[in-house]
Amino acid sequence: MLSRDWDEEFSHLFGRPDEPALDERAPSRLKARLYSALVRKQQETGPLMSLEQTQRAGHGLCVFEKLVQIAPVSEAAQSPFFCTACHARILAENFENAPIFWSCCPYVGFQKG
Amino acid sequence: MGLFCDYVMKIALLKGMRHSVQPPVEVDSTLADDLKLVAEVLSKDRKATAEFVSRYADCVYSYVRRRVMPRPEAVEDLVQETFLAAWQNLPKFRGEAGLRPWLLGIARHKVEDYYRRRLREAEWPPLDDESVAQPSVVPRCEERLDWAQRQKKVERTLAALPETYALALLWRYTENLSTREMAQNAGKTEKAIERLLARAREHFRRRWNHAEP
Asked: Average pLDDT in the A33-53 region?
């Protein structure tokens, strides 16, 4: 019932050149939502790495995380996902090119590329 | 005695070889990066998790989008499902290949599940009419369009079709599934799939030929 010609024609029409050459950029708000969802999932099975350990691993902290880090609290209290309460997350999850500019903020990083 | 000498010589040879073995070839740097990143993500380092998303969201998005166009909400849901499944399975990542092919493998399964689910659940148009006009071949002049232009036109045309038709065409021609495989996956007869495809091609052709390039 299917014509080989049509099959070839449609295969040609729907065909793709090599995948790697055609990477499109995912919307930054999708990246922001992916990140938030992943970190929430990570929290379900126990605390996140503390900010102290994160910094020791060579990563920068954003200004809010630095404030938490210098606060007189235990290392365990530095584990929650603080971005949940941050306006940068909300803006980044809902807008492309959100007006957020904090240094070392993952959500700002997603806006850049 | 001869056998014993032979045995001793073999041992000596093996020992010699062991000493002369070259250091293992350096692991491909991308793979080493991937393994390091996986270890950091598994230790719930939030910044490494952000790096994981930054590094691989584009390729997964791109892969899914080309297969589920033109439904952006479905694309985003499938990308998210892919990453969450990746997190669940990350402890099993052994690094035989890089993270990219590993993630795209998960994405492929998610896309297949999506096609299967949607074609099972979707309202099928009545397919009892056998006299579907067979489409003339899509004009070859379309080859003059470059790939990007053509892709946009394919997306627009698919967006204007009923979902069942669009899914059937994508599954058949993007994933290269045979009608038999589609029938098995969608829980339909092969005949029903062939009729659906004939209808889908006809609708597609009509819209394609009347659309702007």
From this structure: 94
| Position A106 in a domain | yes
Neighbours of A96 (CB within 10 A): 12
pLDDT digits (tens, 9 = 90+) for B91-101: 999 888 899 99
Whether residue B106 is contained in a domain is answered as yes
Minimal-distance CA residue of chain B relative to A105: B47
* Interface predicted TM-score of the whole assembly (ipTM), two decimals: 0.87
Cβ <8 Å between A57 and B40: yes
A30 inside 8 A of chain B by CB: yes
Burial class (CB within 10 angstroms; exposed 0-12, middle 13-18, buried 19+) of A7: middle
Taking the C-alpha atoms of residue B166 and residue B157, their distance in angstroms, rounded to an integer, is 9
Task: Give A-chain residues touching B39 at CB under 8 angstroms.
Answer: none
In a domain, A100, yes or no: yes
Count of domains observed in chain B: 2
The owner of tokens 């080309």 is B66
Q: Which of residues 94-153 of B touch A (CB under 8 A)?
A: 134-135, 137-138, 142, 147, 150
Condensed to tens digits (0 to 9), the pLDDT of residues B179-213 reads: 999 999 888 899 999 999 999 999 998 888 877 66
